[in-house]
Amino acid sequence: MSTPVVRLAMHSMFGRTRALLLYALPVLLVVLALLVRSLGGDESPDRAESLLFIYGLGIVVPVVALLATTTLINSELDDGSILYLLTKPLSRVSIVASKVVVVLLAVLTCGALPLGVAGYVMVGTADHVALAGLAGGAVAGVAYTGIFTALMTVLQRSVIAALLYWLVLESTLASLLGPARWLSARSWGSAVLESVSTVSAGKPDVPVWYALLAAPVALVAGVLLAARRLSTMTLSDE
Amino acid sequence: MNDTGTVEPRPPQALDPRPVGSVLELQAVSRWYGNVVAVNDVSMQIGPGITGLLGPNGAGKSTLLSMMAGLLPPSAGTVTIDGHPVRGDVSAYRNIGLVPVQEQLYDYLTGTQFVRLNADLQRVPDPRAATERAVALVEMIDAADRRISTYSKGMRQRIKVASALVHDPQVLLLDEPFNGMDPIRRRQMMDMLTRLAREGRTIVFSSHILEEVEQIARQVEVVVSGRHAASGDFAQIRRMMTDRPNQYLVRSSDNRRLATLLLADTSVRGVRLRGQQALEVETDDLGRFGHVLPRAAREHDIRILEVTPTDDSLESVFAYLVGA
């Protein structure tokens, strides 16, 4: 990894007003969590888990990952500013890895961590809901980072490809076709969430061991594919 | 000039009085994307001094520069700097400075921060001093602490050059560096590049504007449709371009009579009446034709209503060179 690239990425990610977008959804999650807590009752753990699953894993984590990868990878490829990094004595893998580390930091702090905070706000430490939200969010965040990085670089930097993955494969196909869940970062996150939480005793969509393995593999594959794509960049490649 | 109409590359020492410097060499370089050939069997040797890479839009200049900068692997052939392949060894970038055409920089940084970033990425021994030196070189000290987002086009261009020079490379590659610059800034940039070339650097810049290349480049490489159309010093290239047949559309008060008069002169290769409205004239000697036409009109009391070049676009000049 390259320290100057990480420093630049940190500035780009957190030092600009667009960072406010990253904070909007997690803030809303915590607000909803406060609302759930105010409702009280015996169903609180169920409601808490549902909120973390539907809004947390379903929206907050993928949207934060999408915003973060767009900020650090897609926009620099689109406007060509990444050429200033590519023409330096740094390997392509090192450049991508440095950026992905910062994307991951954003996803974990603005995606996974708020799930844990929201869980704690709703039910404290009961039923391990907070821990489950944190762990599930982290696994899904790692996976989304790798998948979006790959899709945005390999498929002509397409944000649309990332959106199709999220909206079509995950939100539609995965609920209709069981095997599609094996390719779904959300399913991997929810498998971990459900295994840590003691609220529901349902069977996860995919085995936990698979989710724990698939997420880092997706991350590494995303870095390598993106680095490979960057190795054939041209000056007019806007 | 060889029998294919190109001029053999000038040996590096002939380009600059200082023999020290890097030599960028392309040997039988081609690049294709599927069935599309972007660059076709190009060989050239570029030594210290300023070399203009001239060609119309879409000719393959950016692809060539991308390969010179090691960004893109050639599909065939080799690109070397001082005998070392540019591609595959990122340490080659210690000797290369690149100024891309894209205006987008890291706009949220100040000029100083941007140049310093490049110094840090190049791991220069004293990045702070190198940054100050590079910023001073492009005369941007006053604006260096402003955000790049507030810079004009010319200022962006200069800070890009500073970032490319911060590690003191021997080879500087610039993609369309004068794009959108006003005449004053263009002149300043040209003076700066000339100064850098005098220091022994190998500078290559691409352009589709003949006059830009003419003003600073001593060596010109012409690329058309991915092919190396011509190579040599500017005088030779200019001669090839001006010696080509030129076509004009002429409207006058007596087209038929004017046609007869023009055909009598050796500078005119052919004249064709376009109905009763105009003449199409082809000339081999533009300078002489410029005198013959008004003289003939004046002496025979013919009024010239319009003279329009019909093939004066740069594309037609390039097309002629390809066929040369």
UniProtKB/TrEMBL annotation, chain A:
<feature type="transmembrane region" description="Helical">
    <location>
        <begin position="96"/>
        <end position="123"/>
    </location>
</feature>
<dbReference type="Pfam" id="PF12730">
    <property type="entry name" value="ABC2_membrane_4"/>
</dbReference>
<feature type="transmembrane region" description="Helical">
    <location>
        <begin position="52"/>
        <end position="75"/>
    </location>
</feature>
<keyword id="KW-1133">Transmembrane helix</keyword>
<feature type="transmembrane region" description="Helical">
    <location>
        <begin position="208"/>
        <end position="227"/>
    </location>
</feature>
<feature type="transmembrane region" description="Helical">
    <location>
        <begin position="20"/>
        <end position="40"/>
    </location>
</feature>
<feature type="transmembrane region" description="Helical">
    <location>
        <begin position="129"/>
        <end position="151"/>
    </location>
</feature>
<feature type="transmembrane region" description="Helical">
    <location>
        <begin position="163"/>
        <end position="183"/>
    </location>
</feature>
<keyword id="KW-0472">Membrane</keyword>
<protein>
    <submittedName>
        <fullName>ABC transporter permease subunit</fullName>
    </submittedName>
</protein>
<keyword id="KW-0812">Transmembrane</keyword>
